[in-house]
Amino acid sequence: xxxxxxENWTTNNNGVPLFDEQVERYLNVLPTNAQAEKADKPFxxxxxxxxxxxxxxxxxxxxxxxxxxxxxKFKPKQWIKTIxxxxxxxxxxxxxxxxxFCLWATGTTDFNxxxxxxxxxxxxxxxxxxxAQGLDFGVYLSPWDMHxxxxxTEQYNDFFCRQLTELLTKYGDIFEVWFDGAKGAGAKAFHxxxxxxxxxxxxxxxxxxxxxxxxxxxxxxxEEGKARKSEYCVVPEYLTVAETIExxxxxxxNKSVAAMPKSSDEDLGSRELLAKxxxxxxxxxxxxxxxxxxxxxPGGGKVKKAKKLFGIYLDSVGNNSFLLLNVPPDKxxxxxxxxxxxxxxxxxxxxxxxxxxxLSQNYGQLNPETDGYTEFHFDSTKKLxxxxxxxxxxxxxxxxxxxIFLMKPNGKYRKAYSGTVIGMRKIIRVKGSxxxxxxxxxxxxxxxxxxxxxxxx
Length: 457
Description:
There is one protein chain. By secondary structure, the protein is α/β, with parallel strands linked by helices. Helices cover about 25% and strands about 25% of the residues.
């Protein structure tokens, strides 16, 4: 086995500059405090619940009435206990979906849950359940509103900001505000005043991250639970508005926009791509996926098994991304038995990653004189299952290529993994018994700085 120890970031850096003007530019792009704090809580859940739960639809049809919401009971404590058991640390509730039906005691419209037989502020109840279980609370508010008569006029932006203000002032701390740009084919052509919406959030909830049509967290580009092989946090700033002008990006009249990167592109952060863009942004990916085929219950009825969900977790949280897993309650007001069973097993599997540490270090900055490769010796032969690497993202995203070799009890090495970016977190599954490990950073943007290098049984 050729280790090629001499080929590392301290020597040829895989043939690219370790430091130059471009590298310095990349390293100056850093997360906000809210983004950095969120990296320690990378897994949280969506709750799609509302009028569509009552009607059994995925999207409304603009003909719903208050009488159509015939749900008479719901159990938010059961929702949050179930979600906490999955290992998630927060919840984002669909406070208003595209049908315009509001799940809180709003003063903006009569089309809300307080005027139904249920007559309970669902947003408040879910927020209180989150508080009791120690989970963070976030809100989804759909800009598209099929019910509101002012939609399509400038007055609607005022209306939307009033709704947003209610949600951001009545329900305590909000960890994420989730917007999308979805519109049906028959929706009125209308310009959402995104900058104004962002100002409302920044003023009322300055510690909240704004996703997906927002400047803090980007859409990964699919709803299948898949992240890229190389998922960068430092990307062209243009991507912060890509979801808000997607229709224009397809138009023949705007070829310059069409040539810009899209959320679904495979390469969003390589040196070659970033060199073409003047303005860059720390804009990490969020992987959104549902436990069922659809977003509202029954969502096709097929529930993903815990093994599938765990694979999604490793491919998102374990691949420098956030994971937003949708869990839709049913019409009886509970998360169903099958969903609950999958989530509980998922939580057990996630906990097992960190249950038996062999060696874990807050390593800090590597030394250019001695750390071209770094060796870790275990106190005895260990049966490894996971290796976890985390960069100190407050100093930027640096590692671009690395190898891990593990030494068997017979003294021979095997290559356990070859990777590219690390960023917020890299979780690597391994098998076998080993006495030591070698981490070789082959390529980096400046000196690598690690928050954690850990090995787990």
